[in-house]
Design a protein that fits this description.
alpha+beta, Arc Repressor Mutant, subunit A, Beta-Lactamase, Enolase-like, domain 1, 3 domains, 13 helices, 46% helix
Length: 360
């Protein structure tokens, strides 16, 4: 009996159990898979796999089902995530391409991912704390108020009212805005805020120090606003209908704790494998309510600009947000991993300067 064949048996058990959600026996394995050995040999292999903790037999006369360890081995041995077909990629592009805003795109992405996987889909909006400045527009709105329209690299748009007395002339305002955009585009919001304060102390813009302080404060508050990340969720009701209430109740409870889900998926998206996705199974989620669930996530977008706050600059490839799927441990890992990665790549193309194919 070879170890390699035994692991082929394990893979076959996982595949069959995911498909049927019924305990898998040796007879069905030899019938459905070309293992090249007898049913008795397969039965011995399954017994050895049970001893090693990869399988468990729920009832004496029943077949076996994968354990958390068995699922982990299966996922780790998926050498590559199978790309979606051209038709599936076009469907993603067509469905998300009709969006009218970033928020609409993210909502559609959650609905699409839930539809593909039959599980709960979660899509986070880019955190302002991870964003860089793309453009600032400053316009007068009253005798002593200005409106600053701040656009980030991820497409987020924020409006801030700035009280400045006296109101600067149109010429001064235009020159200041032009300088801010030239000096700050591509910088983190915190670093841009510091740059703007410094501009207000120069000879050229010294008369606009109050404006510089007000605009700097607006950017700093945006950068510190961790709650500016929205989370879009879809597929909860469908998942509840597909599985028993006792199995799904803890998972549905966990979904109510959005802060916990956000922290888990955000952390997982920054620790992706070479496949481009991160997978946590059962106890690996470190969340009691998810002991019988798996979480698959991938980051989208990336911070490719200078974000350091000191004199030294650095580049980082950390994602600006995540997209993911949550379902039972017997989920279809192959399909879910491919779908999560494809949607993440499409969203990266949407918000990034270098658009990429959704799943090249």
């Amino acid at each position: 009996m070879t170890q390699s064949r035994r692991m082929l048996v394990l893979r076959a058990v996982v595949e069959d159990y995911i498909r049927s959600q019924e305990p898998v026996g040796s007879t069905s394995l030899t019938r459905n898979h070309h293992l090249g050995v007898s049913s008795a040999t397969v039965r011995n292999d399954m017994a050895a796999l049970e001893d090693e903790g990869y399988l468990v037999q729920p009832h004496t006369s029943a077949g076996r089902v994968p354990t958390e360890k068995g699922y982990r081995y299966f996922v780790d041995r998926l050498a590559t995530v199978v790309p979606l077909s051209p038709a599936q990629r076009r469907a993603i592009g067509n469905f998300l391409g009709g969006s009218v805003s970033l928020e609409d795109t993210l909502q559609r992405a959650a609905r699409l991912l839930a539809r593909i996987t039959g599980q709960v889909a979660v899509v986070a909006s880019p955190a302002l704390s991870k964003s860089t400045l793309r453009h600032v527009e400053i316009v007068p709105v009253s005798m002593n108020k200005l409106l600053a329209v701040i656009i980030t690299d991820t497409g987020r748009v924020a409006q801030h009212t700035l009280e400045v007395r006296p109101l600067p002339s149109t010429e001064l305002l235009a020159t200041f805005s032009e300088t801010v955009n030239a000096r700050c585009a591509g910088k983190s919001l915190t670093l841009a805020a510091k740059t703007i304060v410094a501009l207000g102390k120069t000879v050229e813009h010294g008369r606009l120090s109050a404006l510089a302080q007000a605009l700097s404060h607006a950017l700093t508050s945006m950068a510190a606003d961790e709650q500016a990340t929205d989370m879009y969720m879809a597929g909860t009701s469908k998942l509840a209908h597909q599985h028993s209430s006792t199995e799904m109740a803890p998972l549905l409870d966990a979904l109510e704790e959005q802060v916990v889900i956000m922290r888990l998926m955000n952390s997982l998206s920054e620790e992706v494998t070479e496949n481009g996705v991160g997978v946590a199974i059962g106890s690996e989620t470190h969340t009691p309510e998810l002991m019988h669930a798996s979480v698959i996530t991938s980051g989208y977008g990336h911070i490719n600009a200078t974000i350091s706050e000191g004199s030294a600059s650095a580049q980082t490839g950390k994602p600006v947000a995540f997209v993911g799927s949550i379902g039972p441990t017997h989920m279809d890992y192959v399909t879910t991993m491919a779908a999560v990665r494809a949607v993440a790549r499409y969203l990266t193309g949407i918000i990034g300067e270098d658009a990429t194919d959704a799943d090249s």
